[in-house]
Design a protein that fits this description.
Three copies of one chain form a homotrimer. A four-stranded mixed beta sheet of chain A has the order 2-1-4-5, covered by helices on one side. Chain A has one domain: Macrophage Migration Inhibitory Factor (2-Layer Sandwich). The first copy, chain A, is built from three helices and six strands. Chain A is globular, with a radius of gyration of 15 Å. In chain A, helix 1 runs antiparallel to helix 2. Chain A is α/β, with parallel strands linked by helices and 129 residues long. Chains in contact: A-B, A-C, B-C. Chains A and B meet through helix 1, strand 2 and strand 6 of A and strand 3, helix 2 and strand 5 of B.
Chain lengths: 129, 129, 129
Amino acid sequence: MPLMRLDLIEGRGDEELKRLLDAVHRAMVDTFKVPERDRYQIVHEHPASRMIIEDTGLDIARTKDVIVLQVTTRPRPQAQKQEFYERLCKELYEQCGIKASDVMVSMVQNTDEDWSFGNGRAQFLTGEL
Amino acid sequence: MPLMRLDLIEGRGDEELKRLLDAVHRAMVDTFKVPERDRYQIVHEHPASRMIIEDTGLDIARTKDVIVLQVTTRPRPQAQKQEFYERLCKELYEQCGIKASDVMVSMVQNTDEDWSFGNGRAQFLTGEL
Amino acid sequence: MPLMRLDLIEGRGDEELKRLLDAVHRAMVDTFKVPERDRYQIVHEHPASRMIIEDTGLDIARTKDVIVLQVTTRPRPQAQKQEFYERLCKELYEQCGIKASDVMVSMVQNTDEDWSFGNGRAQFLTGEL
């Protein structure tokens, strides 16, 4: 169920992008323990001038590979979130060569009643999920 | 006040899109009971490869009409949200021929102080709204 | 740390956009009291038909300069948010000639564990921030 909104700098081909999305999905499924088809990914590609991603003084160098991942999800344990951050970076590096220094994540939380996956129903409330 | 962010696959003309936005607005005004001019809609159109919307195993078939609607709103009763999901699908089908199986919604909640509709003021706090 | 998502109508050049982003950043740093490099801005530019921004009956006239700013942030005092709305409009007018009537803001709140600024770590939890 998490909804994943990815903001990237433009320039990747379809195949490269698919690998990136697969890597994000792998990390998510394995740490959040959701079904394989719990996949909801939206990608925004921007000219470099339309994404300013600095580092709050953490001394993190960004490149044109920089990714901002905004996750909307039901509540999850803190440990699971931390595990996700780590695993996400591991997958992105291994599958796509993207450095951990280029991966930023921000999560927002909602609840069962805030999701309808189709058919006009709130599947977490109806018992379908 | 809800802010509506719509993600679609590219390919609709202006008129078709207007009809879609009107349908979303109609469903929202009628179920959330907000003023007619409480309309804040932003549309993102994507190449098909930039939106992966599966179904968490619910066996919901998606087509190129798939819509993801992300709603940011002050708190609303659960029943109102469920009514909105249903009504939204009804309007989109009747006005645009979009099937209920192509309509996904995710809501996020904030509060009075989180809105400024213009003029640098928080109108839910100032008493203007 | 706030993540700033800006939705604008297309048509600005790089320099004009940079000035706009600088103005938003100035307002944010000065009212939220965050480090200068706490800058995370993403811009979406849309055809005019893809942004319908009305006024909830507040009688606020919008132009093609209209800006919707969606802010994701850790909790902040109400007064600070109100100060931000005001200051934002002041900066945008003084630096870019954008009228306060064209500036809409919506905030969403999350918590320490919801941020990873890079390197797979949740820097608000690790003590790095």
